[in-house]
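[step 3/7] inverse_fold.run input=structure_tokens len=574
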């Protein structure tokens, strides 16, 4: 018997120690929801027990049902014929199992049939689903669409759509990318026109690389303002599957084979405005990106966890020179680094989800409290957690997805030639991991998103609080390293800022962001090691391994001799 929650000691540790008291109190309206909803918790202990029970149920579904089906789903995938997508029977069975478990509306309010769980708990579910079958996560993880309608739609739209999502009757897709508009969403051209007589909206144009583009409900970014060319002319729309919305083809991909990635043609598709005009990109999609980054981080972490476990199992069973290969230093060093990276990524990710939950809670509190009752403390906390989320979500996305690729790469290496064969899962993990640091914003774009917060030292106040803890022995030495790293990062940021050279700043941005990731993740790991001595060796290894990487980036960014833009072009053209 395999349960993907209870067999993961680190995930259980995370649930037990993350402290979501403030988050849950906000979502449960100080536990007043229990008066009108039978499943609402009476207090935090009740909520935590509920989270644990649901996670154990999903862990069982993932380990006992979804995981054993994953290889066949990957090999056979969905079927496409006559503009219709039919998912693999085992994929449909997976969705049925998740629906039966009642987790298709994890974060939706009770009144719409949801569980009203925090994003943190939902992300734990996405990690487990991804460990079992990363492509299934691209269906399960589209719950952000219903969340967006819940947050920005009107009451009638919420009543009409959200119960369908929560029950699993409706699935969704987020239709953003176009043939000529990938990362540059400001250039979206799909046209939204409004009939002057009826007031109804219609969509015309193309979308490409749309995950689950065969869905029943579509959230669409379209140009509603005639004559505009930037993000201020874009609005968000909801439309449903209909004859005018044509799936032209599905993509043949390197990985994530179980879900259809579609090219869509809109032929005057009836639609309805979601939220206000002109806010589609500037507010709604940008808000959605926090959830999207976290979701892909969870997917990447699940793949990395699966790859580490597969490598460890193979290394313990494969014998060479009359002993299992995990006894060789070259192999157990690789396994140690893989484990350390997975744990570090999980540490950063769930700190990020907690911040995202707090941002959502305080934003909702400020927006739904009468203006005369909104306190300055409420506004300050909303501003603080919004800034924290803006830097942590791209950092977590960059870190988790790059680590998923590294761990999957090493998984194949430990398998040797067998890892290159379709007979083993290693090559599937490698293929599935590769997209994670591309979609929902490449790593390079995550750097662009994070660099402002790094330069402004958004995380310093959080780290100052963590620095005050008292450490002994090995952890005291690690604490000293982290204090010195923060001092040098501040020095580096000051140096780069004072140069007032935008090209140079852009060139070293990734160095600065990676330094911040090493520093903040190390600080979080030290904090957790103080709660559990078993985590000390992993914390020490992470920080010790990070030191030379941090130092290399520090020296590079601080060097006046850093290769110039012109030199880069000379090298490229050689």
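[step 3/7] decode complete -> sequence:
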């Amino acid at each position: 018997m395999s349960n993907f929650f209870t067999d993961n000691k680190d995930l259980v540790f995370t649930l037990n120690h993350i402290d979501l008291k403030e988050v849950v109190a906000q979502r449960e309206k100080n536990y007043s929801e229990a008066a009108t909803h039978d499943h609402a918790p009476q207090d935090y202990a009740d909520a935590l027990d509920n989270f644990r029970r649901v996670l154990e149920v999903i862990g069982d579904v993932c380990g006992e049902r979804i995981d054993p089906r994953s290889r066949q789903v990957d090999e056979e995938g969905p079927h496409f014929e006559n503009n219709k997508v039919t998912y693999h029977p085992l994929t449909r069975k997976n969705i049925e199992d998740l629906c039966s478990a009642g987790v298709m509306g994890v974060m939706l309010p009770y009144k719409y049939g949801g569980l009203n769980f925090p994003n943190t708990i939902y992300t734990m579910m996405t990690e487990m689903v991804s460990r079992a079958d990363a492509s299934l996560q691209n269906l399960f993880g589209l719950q952000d669409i219903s969340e967006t309608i819940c947050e920005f739609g009107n009451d009638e739209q919420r009543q009409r759509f959200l119960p369908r999502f929560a029950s699993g009757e409706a699935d969704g897709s987020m239709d953003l990318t176009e043939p000529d508009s990938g990362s540059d969403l400001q250039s979206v051209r799909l046209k939204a026109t409004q009939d002057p007589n009826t007031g109804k909206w219609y969509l015309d144009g193309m979308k490409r690389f749309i995950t689950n583009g065969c869905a029943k409900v579509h959230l669409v970014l379209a140009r509603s303002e005639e004559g505009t060319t930037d993000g201020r002319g874009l609005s968000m729309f909801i439309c449903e599957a209909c004859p005018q919305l044509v799936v032209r083809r599905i993509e043949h991909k390197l990985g994530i084979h179980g879900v259809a990635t579609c090219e869509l043609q809109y032929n005057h598709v009836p639609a309805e405005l979601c939220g206000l005009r002109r806010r589609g990109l500037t507010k709604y999609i940008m808000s959605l990106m926090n959830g999207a980054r976290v979701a892909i981080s969870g997917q990447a972490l699940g793949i990395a966890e699966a790859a580490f476990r597969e490598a460890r199992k193979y290394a313990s069973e494969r014998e060479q020179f009359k002993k299992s290969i995990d006894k060789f230093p070259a192999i157990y060093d690789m396994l140690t680094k893989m484990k350390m990276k997975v744990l570090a990524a999980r540490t950063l990710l769930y700190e990020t989800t907690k911040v995202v939950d707090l941002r959502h809670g305080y934003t909702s509190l400020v927006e739904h409290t009468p203006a005369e009752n909104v306190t300055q403390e409420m506004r300050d906390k909303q501003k603080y957690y919004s800034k924290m989320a803006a830097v942590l979500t791209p950092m977590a996305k960059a870190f988790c997805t790059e680590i998923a690729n590294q761990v999957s790469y090493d998984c194949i290496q430990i398998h040797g030639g067998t890892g290159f064969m379709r007979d083993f899962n290693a090559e599937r993990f490698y293929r599935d991991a590769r997209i994670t640091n591309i979609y929902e914003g490449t790593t390079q774009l995550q750097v662009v998103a994070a660099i402002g917060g790094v330069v402004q030292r958004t995380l310093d106040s959080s780290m100052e609080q963590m620095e005050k803890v008292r450490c002994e022995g090995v952890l005291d030495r690690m604490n000293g390293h982290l204090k010195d790293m923060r001092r040098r990062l501040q020095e580096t940021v000051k140096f780069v800022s004072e140069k007032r050279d935008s090209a140079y700043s852009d060139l070293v941005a990734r160095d600065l962001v990676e330094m911040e990731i090493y520093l903040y993740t190390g600080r979080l790991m030290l904090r957790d090691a103080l709660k559990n001595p078993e985590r000390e060796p992993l914390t020490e290894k992470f920080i010790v391994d990070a030191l030379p990487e941090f130092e290399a980036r520090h020296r590079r960014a601080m060097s006046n001799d850093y290769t110039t833009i012109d030199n880069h072009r000379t090298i490229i053209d050689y």
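[step 4/7] annotate
The first strand starts at residue 79 and ends at 81.
The mean pLDDT is 95.
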